[in-house]
Amino acid sequence: MKYSLRKTMPHALFTPNFKYLALLIVVIKSAAGFAQPTPFDKKYVDSVIVLLPKMSDSKAKVEQLRLLASMHLMVNPALTIKYAKEGTAIAERIDDPVGEIGCLAQSAFCYAQSGEWVKATNDVNKAIPLCEKYDPAKLIYMNNIMVIVAHTKGENEMALQYSLKALRNPAFGSGPEISNWPTYMQLGRIYYILNRLDSSRYYADIISMYVKKYAKAIPDLARNSYILFGNLAFSSKDYPSAIKNYHLAPDEIGLAKTYQILNEHDSAVFYAKIGLKFNLIQKDPLGIQESSKILAKEYAKSNPKEAMRYLQIYSDSKDSLYNSQKLRQLEQLKLNEQENKFELQKRLTADRNRFMQLSLGGVLAFFLILAIILWRNNRLKHIANQELESTLEKLKTTQAQLIQNEKLASLGELTAGIAHEIQNPLNFVNNFAEVSVELAEELDESVSQGDTKMIQALSHDLRQNMIHIAQNGQRASDIVRSMLEHSRTTTGEAQSTDLNNLAEEYFKLAYHGIRSKDPDFNIEFVTDFDENLGQVKLVPQDIGRVLLNLYSNAFYAVKKKQTELNYAEGDQPPTLWLSTKRLKNSVTLKVRDNGTGIPTEILRKIFQPFFTTKPTGQGTGLGLSLSYDIIAKGYAGEIYVSSEPGIFTEFVICFPVN
After folding, report:
1. What is this enzyme's EC (predicted)?
2. What span, in angstroms and rounded, lies between the C-alpha atoms of 261 and 266?
3. Which long-range contacts (CB under 8 A, 24 or more apart) does 261-268 make?
4. Of 285, 246, 291, the residue nearest 269 (C-alpha)
């Protein structure tokens, strides 16, 4: 398992631009773990090193030292330890527990990375009590460091327990999604090492999402992700995919072991040497062992002397990892842990004493301020109540006016539809009347000339015109009578109604209403009515108002899509689908359009009063709210919506029937 600190970000991201650097630091610190390597910026480092001796001990100085430590993780681990320890010492002196946690995290991560697991564990043990009291979320990162420590010691089952402990921390998942990446990474790699490949692939699938979104922001985690992908491909014998991912990392040891199994000696040796050189600089014992083992095996075939040299490097690295001094230091950890707890208890006691002193002064100040506030509130209470009552009255008046405006807007759409409906038969009446006048004149001439055949023909045409005039006059009369019935003030009493005809009739009115404003507007109307629906007891004016609102919104959506997006070739043209269905104890009515759809984030708000997505002056935000009230309160029914942005919107009305 590799924990490389190699710099893999594009050169353009390392330009000495302070604004960009500050932004990148914030992203890395807050999102993916505050001890992740920070890109090295020489100009910034040089300027801070000059300023540090002049700075007094403060939280700002601790943060600068922590940042310097993080920057040197990739280029000089020894300086990382130096700056982290200086920051820790200052943080202890000035009582800056958050800064102390940050500096301990830097040194612990560096120690764990280089195989100094005793020192890493010691720093983590010092940080844990501080995390528990001041920043519990940082316990996630401490557990992730201990994963590295346990793996370095060869205790991979213990490493898995530390990873799961990080995953189960109550704070896990509460921050930005990118902050989960390190933990998922640890789990994927540990499961791979334990040969539990299904679990490893599960977390690799999760990690792939982070790589796509955040690879440039945190290249170190992206590198380790590609290594995991390569390892899984290697284990499946998908060597081309393994090589591709190892190159993306890049991971020379992964490339070396792949070329080794492919019997490509030169490539295996080439990449193993690069990996060994890098891991010697980083003091990564596992990396040293793995690369030297590959080289020893390759040279065993052609150069036994070189093979022995690399075996010696392998042996020396293993001895340094498990030498007697480290084992003695491990015993000392328990004593250090007890001393740390004692020091923390002393600090907590001092904090408690300061708190008690401040509390006493605070209580006295509180009562004094409270007395002043009560006196002042007593004086202003009467004035505030009067202003509140006045404001409330104005709000009620405004709401009533807006509701009335919404009703008038619906009436206006209805009136426009009625006018259009009546205009058609009137046009027929006018046209046939004009033609009849001309026929009468011709009839007079024929009578004076005694042309019997012409008289009969003209008389027949005139009679037919009169029939058409009578029919269209009756049609206009029927429309007026029907509209008068619908516009009559409702008594609130339900009556048996043909819901299919009502829905279709109000569609025509709404459609003619919008056509009177926009003659170029067209929409296909598709119905799927339940023929067995029968008569439904309802108040036609109420349901008609609901339907007008739904139709108007559908027209607005398809028109907006035509204007802004256009309908792609092969798409269904602007269409409104209307269907009814009678169930055992209820009736369902669906209105669907293929317009712009409704974004998911506002879907739950559309029935709220005064909420609208239309431009100012084109909607009050009350249409759907009033519709909801009519269905939910007037009929004990339900109205709900489903939508996919850019595809469709569907409103479903369901109310019980006897």
Report:
1. 2.7.13.3
2. 12
3. 265/298, 265/301, 265/302, 268/294, 268/298
4. 291
Specify the higher pLDDT residue, 304 or 93. 93
Token pair for 29: 């610190």
Q: Which residue from 181, 197, 79 is spatially nearest to 140, judged by alpha carbons?
A: 181
Contacts of 206 (CB under 8 A, 6+ apart): 184, 188
The pairs formed by 124-133 with CB atoms below 8 angstroms and a separation of 24 or more are 124/149, 125/333, 125/336, 125/337, 125/340, 126/336, 126/340, 127/100, 127/101, 129/340, 129/341, 129/344, 130/97, 130/100, 130/101, 130/104, 130/344, 131/101, 133/97, 133/344, 133/348
User: In the CATH scheme, what is the code of domain 12-138?
Assistant: 1.25.40.10
What's domain 495-656's superfamily in CATH? Histidine kinase-like ATPase, C-terminal domain (3.30.565.10)
Percent of the chain, pLDDT > 90? 28
* Distance from C-alpha of 649 to C-alpha of 387, rounded to nearest angstrom: 44
Question: What's the residue count for the chain?
Answer: 658
Tens digit of pLDDT for each residue in 225-273? 999 999 999 999 999 998 999 899 888 888 989 998 999 988 888 998 8
Element spanning 229, H or E = helix 219-235
SS3 624: helix
At 546-566, the pLDDT tens digits run 999 999 999 999 998 888 777
250: cis peptide before it, omega within 30°? yes
Question: For the chain, which residues make up each domain, given as ranges?
Answer: 12-138, 495-656
Amino acid at position 171, single letter:
A
